[in-house]
Amino acid sequence: MSGGAVAATALEQEDIRGPHQDSGASEAKAVGTSRWTPYLLLSPGMLWLAVFFVVPTVALLVTSLYTGSLDQGYTFTFPGNWSTYSDALSTYYPQYFRSFVYAALATVFCLLLAYPLAYFIAFRAGRWKSTMLVLVIAPFFTSFLIRTLAWQTILADDGWIVQTMNTLHITNVLTWLHLTEPGRVINTPLAVVTGLTYNFLPFMVLPLYASLDRMDSRLIEAAQDLYSSAWTSLRKVTWPLSLPGVVAGTLLTFIPAVGDYINSELLGSPKTTMIGNVIQDKFFSEVDYPTMAALSVVLMVAVLIIVSIYVRRAGTEELV
Amino acid sequence: MSPSQSGADLRIIDVTKRFGDFVAVDDLTLTIPAGSFFALLGPSGCGKTTTLRMVAGLEEPTAGTILIGEQDVTWAKPYKRPVNTVFQSYALFPHLDIYENVAFGLRRRGVKDIKKPVEDMLALTELSGLARRKPQQLSGGQQQRVALARALINQPSVLLLDEPLGALDLKLRRQMQLELKRIQTEVGLTFVHVTHDQEEAMTMADTIAVMNAGRVEQLGGPTDLYENPRTTFVANFLGQSNFFDGTIVERSGGYATVSVQNQRVGVPESRVHSTGDNVHVGVRPEKLRIQFLDDASLSDGENRLEGTITYSSFIGVSTQYLVDTAWGQELTVFAQNTTRDERLVPGARVVLTWAPDHTFALDADQDIAAGVEIDEDAATPDTVGVAS
Amino acid sequence: MATTTHAAPRTGTTRSSTKRPGGPIRWVRERIIAIIGLLVVLYMFAPIFVVVLFSFNQPAGKYNYQFTQFSTNAWTNLCEVGGMCESLRLSLFIGVVATLVSVVLGTLVAFAIGRHRFRGRSGTNLLIFMPMATPEVVMGASLLAFFVGISTARGVGTILIAHIMFCLSFVVVTVKARISSLDSRLEQAAMDLYADERTTFWKITFPLVLPGIIGASLLAFSLSFDDFIVTNFNSGSTTTFPLFVWGAAQRGVPPQVNVVGSLMFFAALAIVLVSQVVQRRRAKA
Asked: H/E element holding C207?
């Protein structure tokens, strides 16, 4: 969604570490500070997050439990109106399902595309590593919306890509798989998934690259020395060691993709609405705050479950 | 470069440092005379670096006092002490060039004209052409000299060096050892050098304090420490020693006679450091003369042991022999390769002789293996060699 | 495992040069990773190419899908389109303010986490991580619920609040990474050389962390400038540039939008490439 990540990566290249460890203790504590310093430093920022993230989350929960309507006014009576949840879920479970499916597909495609690319940059790029990273992230400097609109142009009915696909009968196969419509790619599930894959690709590439780059290439050499072929080395050595990057990339790709509605709106049709579209509609078209809130809470809970599984395995230090 | 204020001794008095339950420095007392090149020598974890950091002000002692001259610096901040450190990792500021790195201390102290002192110091450390480079662009040896220049230029009362040569390769290290010694002599400052390399300490220092587990085992000049060790730790840590057990049976004429198995071995009284009569008798491998048994000429007054060669290894400067004694103990012999006797091969019966003055005797309570270090650089009997 | 440096004469066939068997298939197999990588890069640049290309288009009607006629009209008459330049100005303003505030707050937090031990570390890490992990839809909706609940009108103020909030976490992560890689012995060395705590911070710590702060600023700005979903929920009637584009998407996107997109791309690309060159020069000389 944003391209500024590479600036941070590119500027990280300077290594300011010393050559090796002293035998003396090197503590994390900065010399000459008081006990209260960390709390003072933390307060402004954390306060901001507390007020403008935590409290709104609570507000969301409360809103989802309102009774009433826009005309009559909303009230909150303890323990809250849970019927909104049952209504919302029963009506919109197809969209939830679709969101998860599209996001999962996009994540898988991202992984398939990003892995060779990250592998290439980490192991074969040599001194062009940081330049290549820049090139990979560069397209994402442009506005998210503008990029997605460009896909509208690329996948337009009379664009040459779609024409070619029609001629080669690829579209027939895809239509049979329910991914496209006859002779058309725009406004189909495939277009939405393509957009999602495209927009979240850097979020998969960067963690994968970081993980692969950290790997010692001599491990692969050792594997080859022990009679493993290139494919086996990949399967038995490289892949398992790159798993932390795969997990991080998957999280960073799947979670935003699930809640996205821009791709669906611009590249899809009313038949491809995702849960994000519904939430947005509830606000803009119908101004139905409780339902909007309920749907959001459910989405949030789903994400929290995924994150907590990750945190339980990896701890919180890896997050930040 | 004029010598700094002389007469400022460094005194460490009853200093202890505890990290939780671990005692890194245990009630240490040392006086380091002004203008000397002093070494703190010991294995990893003996507390030498911690001591250094307490002198620099980068650690606070749990107990004790540190005095520089008359100034009590025990609790003073590092920037308030007339002390500078050459760090093991150099800690050169990567965002400043060499000129600014070296000038850093001067600028902080508000010195106005820094151009000449910096240029002189760069010349002294042979870095003149590199003033505008950044540390990352220099080799290891050059970086080490920048770290030294940066500290020296402030003419501290005490200059601390924390294993500064550790990251250099062998040849460069030897070169820098002589360089540092030369600079110290020329400049006249007090150097306190922390190292685990006994060769380095003996080459450079006037006085060495051998440290072990937070305490000083022995303090003295290199020769004294080497020839007359007081503990097995010192005897094993500096160079190598052969030890065999014995009992003192007689003391007269400045010598003690020790009964070893069925032999008599003479030890000068000045080199007997034992409370009781049961001792470890020690003699260094290079002091032993090895001769083919049938040839051996007997000179009176020499200590003598017989044995069989089990192993020999040609090292260039010397040949190393392992000799099995009658009672099964293995002794190491370093023989200078001035004459080569073809008969000295594994299996040959030989006689080892040495002057009594080269013997020392230590308390039998001590651990005979204390201080034996596995040093990658030193020649060991495990190296496959050419039988001579 | 040594490779022979000189070849023993081959028995059998005489050949002028040694050729490895396999032909073109082998050539492809060996370079398969590079080829896939290249294809992916092309895939990534395709939309950009389209954006730039169509900025030079003179569309026949409202919609800019067919390349009809080459024209630099969009580039020379950028603000011709109603409301676009105003929205650009607003986005820039919000971007700058949000960056300033979030970088200051975030750097303080990063120093606290990276340098100090304190209780509640786990919780702090989690709270910083959550905004990055939360779908924008949920964040937008919850902020909206919050503002509605306290009866605040939505406008520039609420947009700013939202942007600062979600930029904060990214700033913390970026700066903290830089702080973590900072060798604490450099600060010890500075104090050994007569610099007190404050001087050490400004002369040594800050200059070395600065690249991280700059990176974080660029990141925050681009996050803010480009944000659509959260802004959409909390903007009331004000229009930032992404909101303008969204509206235009319904009506027909003018090529001027492509011009802005191209400019954004080239500007950001230039910044990063320049920094690469600067770094290379620093390392080489």
From this structure: helix C206-226
Nearest one of B241, B244, B336 to B290, comparing CA atoms: B336
**How far is CA B386 from each of CA A18, B71, B321, B347, C267, rounded to the nearest angstrom?**
42, 59, 12, 15, 70
Question: Measured over all CA atoms, what is the biggest interatomic distance in chain B, rounded to whole angstroms?
Answer: 78
* Contacts of C among chains (3+ CB pairs under 8 A): A, B
- For the record, the structure tokens of A156 come out as 């337009």
Which of B54, B89, B139 to mutate: most A Cβ within 10 Å? B89
A chain contacts of residue C37, beta-carbon cutoff 8 Å = 116-117, 119-121
The predicted-structure confidence for C85-127, as pLDDT tens digits, reads as follows 899 999 999 999 999 999 999 999 999 998 888 888 888 998 9
Q: Report the chain A residue with the minimal C-alpha distance to residue B19.
A: A25
What's the sign of the alpha-carbon dihedral A83, A88, A91, A96? negative
Burial class for B57, CB neighbours closer than 10 Å (0-12, 13-18, 19+): buried
Contact B79 C194 (CB under 8 A): yes
- Against chain A, the chains showing at least 3 CB pairs within 8 Å are B, C
Distance CA A5, CA C263 (A): 18
Structure tokens at C79: 């603000």
Tens of pLDDT, residues A71-84 = 667 777 777 778 88
Q: Which residues of B touch A16 (CB under 8 A)?
A: 94
| Rounded-to-integer distance, Cα B183 and Cα B164, Å | 15
3-state secondary structure A226-267: CCCCHHHHHHHHHHHHHHHHHHHHHHHHHHHHHHCCHHHHHH
Cα separation values, B362 from B213, B220, B283, B365, Å: 20, 17, 11, 9
Which residues of chain B are under the pLDDT cut of 50? 1-5, 376-388
| Minimum distance, in Å, between the CA of residue C81 and any CA atom of chain A | 16
Quick check: B238 and B197 in contact, CB under 8 A? no
How far apart are the C-alpha atoms of B112 and B41, rounded to whole Å?
39
What is the DSSP annotation of B265-330? EEEEGGGEE-SSSEEEEEE-GGG-EEEETTTPPP-TT-EEEEEEEEEEEE-SSEEEEEEEETTS-E
Residues B47, B24: contact at Cβ < 8 Å?
A: yes
pTM value?
0.80
- Candidates B266, B259, B308, B269; CA nearest to B283 is B266
CA torsion angle C75 C76 C81 C82 (round to 10): 130
Q: Where are the beta strands (DSSP E) in chain A?
A: 67-69, 73-75
Report residue A229 as tokens: 């072929």
C66 touches chain B (CB under 8 A): no
User: Is residue B362 classed exposed, middle or buried when 0-12, 13-18 and 19+ CB atoms within 10 A define those classes?
Assistant: buried
List C-alpha distances in Å: C262 to A140, A202, C267. Answer: 11, 19, 8
Distance CA B40, CA B48 (A): 6
Question: Do strands B272-273 and B303-314 pair parallel, antiparallel, or not at all (unpaired)?
Answer: unpaired
B359 close to B272: Cβ distance less than 8 angstroms: no
- Asked if the model's pLDDT at residue A20 lies above 50, the reply is no
Amino acid at C59: P
Closest CA to B306 of B326, B322, B320: B326
Residue A129 is inside which H or E element, if any?
helix A129-137
ipTM: 0.79
Chain A hits for C137, CB-CB cut-off 8 Å, are 259-261, 275-276, 279-280, 296, 299
| CB–CB contact B94 C199 (8 Å) | no
Q: Within an 8 Å CB–CB cutoff, is residue B327 touching chain A? A: no
CB contact under 8 A, A24 and B53: yes
What distance in Å separates residue A19's CA from the closest CA in chain B?
A: 6
d(CA B309, CA B351) in angstroms, rounded, equals 10
